[in-house]
Amino acid sequence: MSITSWRRFSTLLFTMGAVTVVATPALSQPNNYPSKTITLIAPFAAGSPFDSLGRIFAEKLGKKLKTSVVIENATGGQAMVATKKVLNAPADGYTLFYTSNGLATAPVVIKDAGYTLNDFTPIAPLGQAPYILFASASVKATDIPSLMQELKERGKSMNHGVLGTSHLGLILAKKISATAGGDPYQEISYRGSPEMIRALLADDIQLMATTYSIAGPHLKDGKIKAIGVVARDKSIRMPELKTFIEAGYPDLYTDVWAALYTKAQTPSYIVEILRKASAEVTADPSFAEAMKPTGSEAWNMTVEQMQPAFEAEAKSFKQAIEKFNLKLN
């Protein structure tokens, strides 16, 4: 072989080797994930409805990915404790964020929250807890139109219960009263749903918005009634009830949701693996059945719609705070 031929052959070998070195890691990357336990950081208290939903999802996701998936509860600071844990973790797909409305609304309430929605990449919408407006037996109204008329006529003599920890509930109550017109009712704050439902049964408050799992079982006693759904979608548990949107009030809704996110810097191939597995879990009828005891329901939302929807939610939340001159903390 001549010197010139040898140089050409050597160059060819080097080029082939370079291609091999570059191609091998690229092809092997998807096969390396996941290789250890995945942790879902959640701002929900252990035993709460969304915590229960998360544990159901984590178990099923783990089976899909053939690895352990666990929930880590990190409560406090209006979900900021959990949020910062995720932000400070590596963007490697092993620390995910199982979160709710606070992801969108906390930066509106908390000065210098230190993040925006763009710091996270959506993986999957997991479920919603459609709120239903319940009324005590002393309320004459039986549907949305008659309730709005009754609020206009005697709203001042009525009380609306809200959770002290839920800014969304307070804003919804303000919106309903303002839309009905007349003298506004009083919002009464409660530490938890059990305390609030007892107040509704005793007619200490006349209205409260909550999930079917909390108030629905008391309907058979005749001490309370269901008026309408204050979410964008109808409730699977009470399909006969109209939403306020269907009744002609397009702004009277609040979506209480749970979703899975990862850090924005997470490699795209990991994001796709997680999205595919999560979509398979949520599409399985057994997941929808397992959701029922948690008070959650399937959610008419796609992963592509998540960011725009939550950006709009944050904008609406901010506008409501300014409109009603609310001081939230």
Give an overview of the whole structure.
It is a single chain. The chain is an alpha/beta fold. It folds into two domains: 33-129 and 256-323, Bordetella uptake gene, domain 1 (D-Maltodextrin-Binding Protein, domain 2, 3-Layer(aba) Sandwich); 132-229, 3-Layer(aba) Sandwich (D-Maltodextrin-Binding Protein, domain 2). The chain is 44% helix and 17% strand. The chain contains eleven helices and ten strands. It has helices at 3-32, 49-65, 80-87, 102-109, 144-154, 167-180, 193-201, 212-215, 268-283, 285-291, 303-323; strands at 38-42, 69-73, 95-100, 120-128, 132-136, 159-163, 186-190, 207-210, 224-229, 257-263. The strands form two sheets. A five-stranded mixed beta sheet has the order 2-1-3-10-4, with helices on both faces. A five-stranded mixed beta sheet has the order 7-6-8-5-9, sandwiched between helices. α2 links the parallel β1 (38-42) and β2.
